[in-house]
Specification:
alpha/beta; 12% strand; Rossmann fold; 3 domains; five-stranded parallel sheet; Helicase, Ruva Protein, domain 3; 20 helices
Length: 476
């Protein structure tokens, strides 16, 4: 028998059947669990979780008023650090996979034996303990609410990893130490830097600069400024960005592209807290915080010759933030699409009230190497072409279709097919449904790729797994 008598974590049971709650409570008591709370009405769970932040949740799926799946979505959004274990009589594999994708920690099918129940609880408790240890080391406290949620309002998300980063930012914002932000192109690194600045309450300005195109002289002049006569054309004193920021924040984007000479100067700035304007031998104090960002792996670069100084890497990464790419937080797509559509429509003087579900389904299939910047491009282009109050997938489909690109759109290349209404009706004998178009696109891409699923998926703009899933659905 499992013994959990040493744990202080509360176990919360949610089920609309009182007999099930009684049975599981008895089972937990026999295992040594001391802190148990039962919830028979799923609508009241939020109040319970607000009271008990450190908890493991066992959740039934089939409940009146509010289903277990709806509860799961809410818990992952509002209490991302609470492990949720699904307990249900539903043995459907697709349902299990869906729940796990939504963030469930485990999925148990009733009737549940003692060993399975105990193993699921032990694993969840280990996750809780590891998370608490990590957060204790970092000095973090993960209650439900942020202290300054308004400072994160420009970052649209309901992803639990992003929520964890917000808490981390609140904990390190006042330290004044350098922060290194890692993230792919278009993932929102500058928004995170601005949030750190805002949360810190710094009195100075937030000043951002992309250093990737700056040689050493231009980097020094931009950052440190110069005295009159420092070089030909320097006919007056000019303040650098450090002086402009004052007691604020300097954000250096694309720091991975900084040339070696400039790396030395930045390292000296961080070590000594002083700098010299060009043409001046009097040191100036740097009062600004340094935040840097890159889409490169600096720890890898610093291990390859002199591409990036390892001592500078460690100075810059006193605090380290890794922003997850958009493909790893697909639950944010509807929120982002709605936000960007409203913003685009307002800027263009249009009224678009809804986004067609088929557009969201299409977006969910994309890998988004350009992240939110790429999504913004698609949405703004689609809004510009939209002449109704509903945004559909057609404009984006045209953009993603490689057959539509070429030197002369009015003259298709040999063998290319211009998919206008007449052509579609010729192919299908009627105007096709979206599912028929999808099936046709898959068939043609496989044919063109010689049944190579990797090549076909790449041509379709979806992952190989997504293509394989669609092919399995077609199999009788």
């Amino acid at each position: 028998m499992n013994n959990f008598s040493t744990t202080d974590t509360r176990v919360i049971l949610v089920d609309d059947d009182q007999s099930e709650l009684d049975a599981y409570s008895f089972l937990l008591l026999s295992m040594g669990v001391k802190h148990i709370t039962t919830v028979i009405d799923s609508r009241t769970l939020t109040q319970v979780l607000e009271k008990y932040h450190s908890s493991v949740l066992f959740l039934d799926l089939n409940m009146p008023h509010k289903s277990g799946k709806e509860v799961l979505v809410d818990v992952r959004e509002q209490f991302p650090h609470t492990p949720v274990i699904i307990c249900t009589a539903n043995s459907d594999i697709e349902m299990a996979v869906e729940c796990l994708k939504l963030g469930a920690h485990d999925y148990l099918v009733k009737p549940i034996n003692v060993n399975t129940f105990g193993s699921a609880l032990r694993n969840a408790l280990e996750i809780c303990n590891l998370r608490n240890e990590v957060m204790t080391l970092k000095g973090l406290s993960f209650g439900r609410n942020l202290n300054t949620p308004h400072h994160f309002s420009s970052i649209i998300t309901k992803n639990p990893v992003m929520a964890g980063l917000f808490h981390y930012i609140e904990s390190i914002a006042s330290s004044g130490q350098p922060v290194l932000i890692l993230g792919e192109t278009g993932s929102g690194k500058e928004l995170f830097a601005k949030a750190i600045h805002d949360v810190s309450g710094a009195s100075g300005q937030f000043v951002a600069i992309d250093v990737s195109g700056l040689d050493d002289t231009l980097f020094s002049d931009t950052l440190f400024g110069h005295k009159k006569g420092a070089y030909t054309g320097a006919d007056k004193n000019r303040s650098g960005l450090i002086e402009t920021a004052g007691q604020g924040t300097i954000f250096l984007d694309e720091i991975g592209d900084l040339n070696p000479s400039s790396q030395v100067k930045l390292l000296r700035l961080l070590q000594e807290g002083i700098y010299y304007p060009l043409g001046d031998d009097q040191p100036q104090n740097c009062r600004a915080r340094i935040i840097t960002a890159t889409n490169k792996k600096l720890n890898t670069l610093s291990g390859r010759g002199n591409e990036f100084r390892v001592d500078l890497y460690y100075r810059l990464s006193t605090h380290l933030i890794q922003i997850p790419p958009l493909r790893e937080r697909k639950e944010d797509l509807p929120l982002l699409a709605d936000h960007l559509t409203r913003k685009a429509a307002n800027s263009m003087g249009k009224k678009i009230s809804t986004i067609r579900q088929s557009l969201l389904d299409l977006l969910s299939e994309l890998s988004f190497p350009g992240n939110i910047r790429e999504l913004k491009t698609y949405i703004y282009d689609a809004v510009a072409q939209c002449h109704t109050d509903e945004l559909s997938e057609h404009a984006i489909l045209d953009r993603l279709n490689p057959e539509q690109t070429g030197p002369d759109p009015g003259t298709p290349a040999p063998g290319a097919l211009k998919l206008d209404v007449l052509a579609l009706e010729t192919i299908f004998g009627h105007f096709p449904t979206l599912s028929e178009l999808t099936r046709y696109a898959i068939e043609q891409s496989l044919k063109k790729a010689g049944n190579n699923q990797s090549k076909a998926a790449k041509a379709l703009g979806i992952s190989k797994q997504a293509l394989s899933k669609r092919l399995k659905k077609r199999t009788p």
